[in-house]
UniProtKB/TrEMBL annotation:
Protein name per the record: Biopolymer transporter ExbD
Domain of life of the native organism: Bacteria
This protein's UniProt keywords: Cell membrane, Membrane, Protein transport, Transmembrane, Transmembrane helix, Transport
Organism: Candidatus Akkermansia intestinigallinarum
Subcellular location: Cell membrane
Length: 163
């Protein structure tokens, strides 16, 4: 039998990675991007001072109207003039009510006057429609029909703010 001679190998340490070339590449990229990017210089903001009212050429704000529908069905124009009386629920179901279109002819006349006045100023009329929660839907539809008949389309509706 042949004897085998053992060759002793030197003990090697932990493998290490040489990262000096990687660091060199990172610094080169950093320098490249610093040179290649354009630096934004701050500029002052050109701003004109707001004009006073005497210098303003703008039209005055358009007239605004408020229509309030109370829980009884009464319709108020600008909270001081009643243009539609109180309506009971049985009157809503009658044929006479449908024929009279909700008794809102005075409201239509006032809205047409408002529209003519604001059109003369070169603006659109604005109307805020406020109604109580318990108002029958038909009464709100009647008021919206009166607004449409007067040619007013800019309407904001606020519900539940009236008692």
């Amino acid at each position: 039998m042949a004897r085998h001679k053992r060759i002793e190998t030197e003990e090697q340490g932990d493998p290490e990675m040489n990262i000096s070339s990687l660091i060199d590449c990172c610094f080169l990229l950093l320098i490249y991007f610093l040179v290649a990017t354009t630096l934004v210089s701050e500029k002052k903001i050109d701003m004109a001072a707001p004009a006073t009212q005497s210098e303003s050429n703008e039209a005055p704000p358009p007239d605004k109207a408020s229509i309030t529908i109370q829980s009884s069905g009464a319709v108020l124009y600008n909270n001081d003039f009643t243009v539609g009386g109180a309506i009971s629920s049985s009157e809503f179901e009658s044929k006479d009510y449908a024929r009279q279109k909700g008794h809102l002819t005075q409201l239509v006349e006032r809205l047409k006057t408002l529209r003519q006045r604001t059109k003369a100023q070169g603006a659109e009329p604005l109307v805020l429609l406020r109604c109580a929660k318990s108002v029958p839907h038909q009464r709100v539809i009647d008021v919206l029909s009166a607004l449409a008949e007067a040619g007013i389309s800019a309407v904001a509706v606020e519900r539940g703010s009236v008692e």
